[in-house]
Amino acid sequence: SAVISQKPSRDICQRGTSLTIQCQVDSQVTMMFWYRQQPGQSLTLIATANQGSEATYESGFVIDKFPISRPNLTFSTLTVSNMSPEDSSIYLCSANTRSDTEAFFGQGTRLTVV
Amino acid sequence: GQQLNQSPQSMFIQEGEDVSMNCTSSSIFNTWLWYKQDPGEGPVLLIALYKAGELTSNGRLTAQFGITRKDSFLNISASIPSDVGIYFCAGLPYNFNKFYFGSGTKLNVKP
Fold first, then answer.
1. Most-buried pick from A24, A98, B22, B33 (CB within 10 A)?
2. How far apart are the CA of A100 and the nearest CA of chain B, in angstroms?
């Protein structure tokens, strides 16, 4: 298994500002992902964080709004830029282990934009 | 794209009852995972399935990888109040490295 630490665990932000969420894995992993989860809803994949190169974004998500960094095999950041109340959600970091056959999650970052 | 249908959407049961939920997909998956999410937490992996027909248990939880490789189910026996939460299935298609998630089953257990 993998232990994934995310911070901050929650934040309340003003609209128009940006927030960077950090994700640290306790072991080297090949695949890291960022998800968004509206309260009571399922997980929506934002992007795959690629080590040493640009992230791969899913339809509906763009780099200017959600820039992602992944400088090494254990760490990634997601920035939510120019926030609006519609960005209020839970953001989750995930990593695959065991040859990409298991996925583990951080505890999530609950973001409220006012 | 891949679609996972998870049912039921929610369940209200009495403590001690057994629970069953399932996921079906429109295409073949190589791996099925089942997660539980408590309020304010990230999903926690409960059971992983890798072969068609595989039946795996984790305490009172039992999950099976369907023979057609397009479905999976999770059973919880003798439910207790701490089983309350949202359960998600996730599937990994062949030659992919990202998982697709079901919509979740919200379980409520009355003491």
1. B33
2. 6
